[in-house]
């Protein structure tokens, strides 16, 4: 693993200019629903990963890794009939637990929790098997060129709070909350994580009237870039507030459309997995010592 962000694959290959990101989104757009519905679907997958991770008691960095892997995948892959976003989200949770070296965790617990959350929240997530997740794990790893090194803003925020000697817990909680919400935007694909942390800290200080001007004035960073990031996060909040009611209204319809779209794919995958399991079972039976002796006698 890279010892610093600047040496990492995240810095070298997974930060984009706004124009490049827009071009990629245009190229790899969703082919099975309108742009607005696709945005609702992606937001729902972010919410879904957050709820599953929290239900499992995972650290916020693990949940954030799953969200970033999901975002990266659909920056380099078209959202079409080959890739069910719900299964991609579940597999990204599984991969995130591996990447972050989460202890005392297994896939069975994850799939059980997925069904608990989807039953409670109505995400309409099918009952995926271990094989479903393992199959799609390969697709994601291949699409990401095995670039799994992830740096998040959280570690930087903790350091900045200590450096600035901020003891106002309301301010700290606000900054942390802003960072969590920032994963609904594209800032993690556009800017280094340390700048995102500074922007969230700056926004929280303004929001809670904490005077930290002296600390910010001593930073060796371009404050216009920090304000640029803050503005993108503010625009994300405003944009979602403007369409929140409509998105709530169309959410059940969007998830139902996705369910219908991938229902036949899921049935075909189930059938394929049964065939594989039966074939493996036959091979194991043939390899038993008793069966080998019977073969020799013939």
TrEMBL record:
Coiled coil: none annotated. SUPFAM superfamilies: Cyclin-like (SSF47954). The keyword Membrane does not apply. Residues 47-142, 155-235 form the Cyclin-like domain. Residues 265-298 are annotated as: Disordered. Gene3D superfamilies: Cyclin-like (1.10.472.10). GO terms for molecular function: cyclin-dependent protein serine/threonine kinase regulator activity. One of its GO terms (biological process) is regulation of transcription by RNA polymerase II. Transmembrane segments: none annotated. InterPro entries: Cyclin-like_dom, Cyclin-like_sf, Cyclin/Ssn8, Cyclin_C_2, Cyclin_N. It comes from the Eukaryota. Residues 281-298 have a biased composition (Basic residues). The keyword Acetylation does not apply. PANTHER family: CYCLIN (PTHR10026). Belongs to the cyclin family. This is Cyclin-C. It comes from Hondaea fermentalgiana.
């Amino acid at each position: 693993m890279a010892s610093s962000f600047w040496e990492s694959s995240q810095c070298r290959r997974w930060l984009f200019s706004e124009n490049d990101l827009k071009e990629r989104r245009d190229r790899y757009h969703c082919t099975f629903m309108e742009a607005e519905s696709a945005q609702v679907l992606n937001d729902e997958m972010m919410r879904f990963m957050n709820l599953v991770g929290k239900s499992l008691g995972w650290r916020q960095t693990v949940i954030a890794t799953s969200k970033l892997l999901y975002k990266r995948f659909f920056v380099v892959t078209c959202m079409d009939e080959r890739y069910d976003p719900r299964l991609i989200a579940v597999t990204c949770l599984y991969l995130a637990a591996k990447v972050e070296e989460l202890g005392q965790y297994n896939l069975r617990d994850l799939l059980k929790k997925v069904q608990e959350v989807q039953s409670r929240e109505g995400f309409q997530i099918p009952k995926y098997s271990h094989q479903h997740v393992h199959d799609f794990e390969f697709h994601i790893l291949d699409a990401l060129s095995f670039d799994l090194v992830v740096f998040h803003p959280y570690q930087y925020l903790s350091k900045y709070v200590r450096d600035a000697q901020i003891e106002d817990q309301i301010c700290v909680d606000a900054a942390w909350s802003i960072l969590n919400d920032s994963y609904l935007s594209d800032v993690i694909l556009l800017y280094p994580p340390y700048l995102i942390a500074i922007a969230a800290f700056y926004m929280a200080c303004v929001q809670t009237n904490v005077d930290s001007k002296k600390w910010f004035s001593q930073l060796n960073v371009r404050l216009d870039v920090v304000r640029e990031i803050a503005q993108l996060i503010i625009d994300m909040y405003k944009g979602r507030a403007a369409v929140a009611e409509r998105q709530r209204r169309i959410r059940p319809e969007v998830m139902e459309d996705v369910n219908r779209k991938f229902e036949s794919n899921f049935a075909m995958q189930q059938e394929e997995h049964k065939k594989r399991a039966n074939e493996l079972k036959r091979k194991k039976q043939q390899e038993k010592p008793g069966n080998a002796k019977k073969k020799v006698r013939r």
